[in-house]
């Protein structure tokens, strides 16, 4: 897996500032991460950290953080956000399948369904190999991925979503989603209209590919890479996982 291959699937993050405005408020995943970090005085690694949505609040809690992402713009925005505070964060641009960090950590995590960017079996295995090299003995890896609900994936889906930014701009997003059963990849296209004071000011179109992984695949992936499952939740609220769960929130641990 190379930088170029990942870069072909990053249209969704072209405008880091706008992306941050849309998603920075989301904090449901923070509670579990904090619980697993506890009072660790050792550095913690966040993969696919984006604009620092979790890296920055974790550092505010006193944790030494390494924020890793492949996207230059997202990392630069995260750095700008953290510059006004004296936070212990090392932001680094790296491919998560080829991590080369100067530390080993008791906790590595990756949220925001970033796991779905690893589109092939090989890239998933490479991710776990890379994580394994940077985890301490019995260290934890926490990540989430959308649950493949077949009745939803079976049909072409068109939806419209309306969001408000800073009580000033309205964003209408039109989503088209088509699932390929052979590759287990969902092809998503979004057309966004940004309206301010009743006037259409921007129209954007982007696409993204998202790999879906089934529970038994996940079990194989963990075992074959030397991990054991600690918990599998259906959401970041620790709901019990079942066939209708929106997410698979995975807490796994490195075996000796």
Relative strand content: 35-45%
Widest beta sheet: strand line-up: 3-2-1-4-5-11-10
Regarding CATH, which class of the largest domain?
A: Alpha Beta
Number of domains: 2
Radius of gyration: 18 Å
| Gross geometry | globular
Q: Roughly how many Å apart are the termini? A: 27 Å
CATH-scheme architecture of the largest domain: 3-Layer(aba) Sandwich
Summed up, the helix count is: 8
Instruction: List the uncertain runs.
Output: none
Strand count: 11
Give the biggest sheet. 7 strands, mixed
Query: Helix-strand pattern, N to C?
Result: HHHEHEHEEHEHEEEEHEE
Global structural class: alpha/beta
Supply the key terms:
256 residues; alpha/beta; Rossmann fold; 2 domains; globular
What does this structure look like?
It holds the Pfam family Methyltransf_25. InterPro entries: Methyltransf_25 (IPR041698), SAM-dependent_MTases_sf (IPR029063). This is Methyltransferase domain-containing protein. Residues 44-139 form the Methyltransferase domain. By secondary structure, this protein is an alpha/beta fold. The protein folds into two domains: 3-147 and 213-254, Rossmann fold (3-Layer(aba) Sandwich); 150-211. The chain is 25% helix and 36% strand. The chain contains eight helices and eleven strands. The strands form two sheets. The chain has a seven-stranded mixed beta sheet, with helices on both faces. A four-stranded antiparallel beta sheet has the order 6-7-8-9, with no helix packed on it. The radius of gyration is 18 Å and the shape is globular. The model has no long low-confidence stretch (mean pLDDT 93).
């Amino acid at each position: 897996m190379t930088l170029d291959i990942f870069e072909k699937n990053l249209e969704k993050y072209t405008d880091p500032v706008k992306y941050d405005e849309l998603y920075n408020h989301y904090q449901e995943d923070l509670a579990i991460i904090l619980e697993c970090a506890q009072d660790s005085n050792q550095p913690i690694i966040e993969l696919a950290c984006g604009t620092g949505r979790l890296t920055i609040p974790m550092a505010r809690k006193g944790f030494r953080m390494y924020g890793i992402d492949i996207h230059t713009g997202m990392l630069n925005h995260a750095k700008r956000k953290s510059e006004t505070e004296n936070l212990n964060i090392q932001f680094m641009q790296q491919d998560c399948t080829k991590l080369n960090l100067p530390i080993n950590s008791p906790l590595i995590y990756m949220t925001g369904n970033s796991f779905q960017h690893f589109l092939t079996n090989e890239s998933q295995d490479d991710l776990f190999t890379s994580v394994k090299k940077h985890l301490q003995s019995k260290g934890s890896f926490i990540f989430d991925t959308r649950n493949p609900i077949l009745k939803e994936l079976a049909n072409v889906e068109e939806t419209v979503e309306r969001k408000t930014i800073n009580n000033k701009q309205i964003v209408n997003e039109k989503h088209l989603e088509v699932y390929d059963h052979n590759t287990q990849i969902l092809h998503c296209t979004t057309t966004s209209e940004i309206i301010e004071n009743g006037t259409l000011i921007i129209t954007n179109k982007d696409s993204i590919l998202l790999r879906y992984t089934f529970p038994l695949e996940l079990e194989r992936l963990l075992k074959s890479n030397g991990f054991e499952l600690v918990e599998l939740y259906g959401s970041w609220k620790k709901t019990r996982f079942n066939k209708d769960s929106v997410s698979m929130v995975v807490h796994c641990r490195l075996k000796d």
